[in-house]
Predict the 3D structure of the following.
Amino acid sequence: MNLIKVIKVLLFMTFFLGVSIPAMARTISHPNHYDHATIGEHFDPYSMVTKMTGSRYDRMEKKSIWSYEYADGTICRVVTAGYIVQDIYLIKP
């Protein structure tokens, strides 16, 4: 009976680690400047040197989030309020 419980726990831990390790492989950073976006300055969403993958407006916070994807797999999200950059998120694979 105890052997079955041990096997179940080992299977659960193996599954948990298998799911969580790839999620931790990405690194997220918050630089002050990336590409043509600088925190605190005016932002032109079409001046970035890569492909825009999407944009959305958060009505609660009254902010726009612009998403860009680079050839190396890096994803850049620029958060603006009134076209002034509030934050920059970089997600590197």
Q: What stands out?
A: The radius of gyration is 20 Å. The mean pLDDT is 85. Strands lie at 27-29, 33-34, 37-38, 51-58, 63-69, 75-81, 84-92. Residues 2-24 form the longest helix (23 residues).
